[in-house]
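Pasting as-is:
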Amino acid sequence: MSRTAIELIKRFEGYRRTAAQLPDGRWTIGHGHTLTARQGAEVSTEDAEALLLYDLIAVSHALNEAVYTPLIQNQFDALASFVFNIGLDNFHRSGVLRRLNEGAPILAACAMELWRKADVGGERIVVDALVRRRASEKAVFLTPEGDAWVPAPSPILKPLLDGDAQGVVPQQTPVEVIASMEGEAVVVLREGEPTPPPAPPEDDAEGPAKSAAEAVTARLSTLFQEPDEEPSHAEAEVQPRPHPERIPEDPRPQDDFGLPGFTPLEDPVPFFLRAPEPQDEPSEADEADEPADEEDQEAAPRGRDLFDTAPANDAAEAVPAEPEEARYPSRLVIDDSAPYEFIAPPVQPLPAPTQGGVLTLVALAVLGLIFFGGGIFWATNARPVASSVWLGPRLVGGLAGIAGVGFFVVAIYFLLDRLGRASERRARQRR
C-alpha cells in the first residue's frame, strides 16, 4: 500500500500517546493499535506509525488472498483503510468482497458506504465520523490512475434521481460522537451529552461486599451456636421479623417434626445408639406375680387378637361363617417360593445341504468352459461363407463363448455363496 492509505487511516484513527482501556476491556495506543497495548504504556509519533505499519501487514495479506480481481493502487489503499476499520472477519463476509470478486467495483464502492453504524450507549446509531470515513474511502477507491477520468458532460448526460439507491441515504440522522483522547479509559459521548462524573471508589468499610459477609457470618453463628449461648445484637437483626397475621400455634403437644398430637421424645438419641441399660434381678414380689409355668400362662385370660375376627354381638355368633371360596371366587394363590421350571423353546435344526446342488454347480461351470472353448475354436477355424448369410459360424461361435462365460460366472457365484453359508453354520455350532 502507498502513503495515501497510511495518511487516510491516521486522519480518522487519531493519535493517542498513552494507552487507554476500551469498553470491552482491551487497551489501545497510537493509531488504533490493540495487539501489544497495555496499561501505562507510552508511544511516540514515529513508534505509533511503526505499529500501524505492523498492523497493516495482516490487512495486506487478507486483501491479496481474498480478492481475485485485479486492483489499482487507489483501490488497494481504500480497501486497506476499510478493512483496518471493520476488521478481517467482517470483511470476509461482507458484500464488498463479494462484489469485488464478481467484477463489479462500482457496486463494491457503493457497498462500502453501508458500514456506518456503531453501538453507542446500548443503541445502534449512524455515526457521522463513519459516514465521512466511508465517503473518503469511496472517493479514493473511485479515483483512477493518472488522467484516466471518463468525461461526463452535463449538457449531454443530465443527472437524474436514482430511486433504487435507497440504502445510500440513511434514514436516521447521523450523530456526532466524540471519543476522549485523555486518561486511561475511553469514554464515547454523543454531541451535547454531558460528561459523566467519575465514579467514587467504594469504601471497604461500608461496601456491599462487607455487609453481605457480615450477614452471612451472623446467620452461620445463629445456626451453629452453643445451647447456653444467646444470640448477639447483630444476630438478632438478621432474624426475620414475625408476620402480623401469623396463624396461632396449636396447643397440642408436637413431636420432633412439628406434627401435633404426639408427645415429643424425651431422649433424642435413637434406640440403636443407646447404651444397654442394666437389668435388675427380679425380686420375690415380681416372681410371685409371674405365672409359675406355661400352663398358668395358657390359663390366664388373653386379650383380643387384632387378627382374630371376633363377632360383634351374640346374634352374629349364631350365623355360620361363609367359606372363603364363596366370598372370593376369583382368588388365585401364587407361591413365590416354588421353583420356576424353564421350558426351552424347540430349536429346529437347519436343513443339511444336499450334495446334488454342489455337483450341479460344478457341472454348470464345466459346461460353461466347454461352451467358451468350443465357441472360440469354432469362430477361429470355421470356413468363411457368403456375406448374404446373416448367421455365420463366427457369430455363432462368439455367442457360444459369451454363453459359456455366463454359465461359468453364475456357477462360481452360487458355489462361493454355498461355501460361505456352510462356514457360518459351522461357526454357530462351535458356539
